[in-house]
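User: Round two. Same drill as before: sequence, then structure, for each protein.

Assistant: Same drill it is. First protein:
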Amino acid sequence: MTTIQARRQLIVILLLCVAAVAAVIRHYAERGSTVHNVSTVMMLLWLPVVGSIVGWFYARLQRKPPAAPPSFAPGRAFEPQALVELTLRPASIPAEDGPVAIGEHRFVLVVGHQGFQSRWQVAPGEVVRRGQTHQLHVEFLTPQTALPQLPQGTPFRMLVGDAFTGDGRVLQVLAPAA
């Protein structure tokens, strides 16, 4: 729970407690007295809370689920667009320090403060090990955006999930930016 959520929850609890105490005071106060009238007004302090809850439910019903992030089409053939030199960082767990699995691997190629969704493949019979430099082909999700930013020799970092797992540089652009 964030600090703002905790404060809002505390405010709701305090307003409901004030309303409950006001209801008890109003019940025992003489009708028409100042105490009776003030406690009636104090009981109304919880009404904005009800309005906020109704508004939250209404917004929740109206809100559409977020759109899925763009991704490579399932089953789409791998089309290399750049040749890169990549060095995967050693694994932090010795059990994971074996060769990289055969198949497609997705990552974000980070240059400065920009990132480009990319993928590369390990072909059957090919061995890619961590800590060693390899020349690999890369395909970009949006080559028209990525390739102009990646001239030959551009250094980059490889982001997988929330961790940087490799470093490299662009050796050659194979496909022109459309």
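Second protein:
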Amino acid sequence: MCALAITHTGKAPARLFPTTDRPVRVVARDLAADELLRAHQHPWAQVTYALDGVMQVFANQQTWFVPPMRAIWIPASVEHEVRTLEKARLRVIYVAQHVAPISGQACVVLEVSGLMRELVLALTALDQPGTREDHLVATLLDELSNAENLPMSVAMPRDKRLKMLCETLLGDPASNLTLHDFAQQVGASERTLARLCEQELGMSFGMWRQQMRLARAAPLIASGLPLSAVAAELGYASQSAFSAMFKKTFGKSPSVFFKRAGLDRPQW
């Protein structure tokens, strides 16, 4: 992966931490492209969401590419790292455990409704607690509990040889690098790398590459890039081949999957 320009701790001021009386807080962070909120954890859950810009999130040995109309739920005490792929207006929603609307330790990508977006904007503008904040928070928690979960994660390995391969392909998803090619670079046999894929990624190398390319499509489509250009960027032979694989995986065409209620839509 490319070097990062600026690294931050990801820690907000203590006055913005969630409490029993104010269990949901919104932290606004405007970041330049290629900035990193380094790995950290805290005793509350959070929803990481960008009003604009695309971010990459790493947690639980998985990575996600999250465009503006999506958000990622990160449970309490889960170590996570956030990198901006382009200039982004981050809005991080801290949620105290006693009101968390999503259970379990899995991170999930959520669809952001027009209402959820407006609730986040309204809470960001509030300075003082009160009845209005209570009502906005209750509605936001309800929206989060009913938000559609989207399968957009990419598993990442622990083995440093396989991790190097995966990170290389994340940076260049159109690459036709094979396990045989990479084996010659790292000194591990193709058979060893294939076994590591099954053990650490839970799938074959080919299936991982396909999943990674579809996840990488999210920021490209969100930016309004034509599907033909997205297909070429990801190494697909044609737009129709990319669209068919996308629909087979997600059950929806790219245009339906990335439809943004209440927002301007990319022109494809």
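The chain has two domains: 14-150, 157-257.

User: Perfect.
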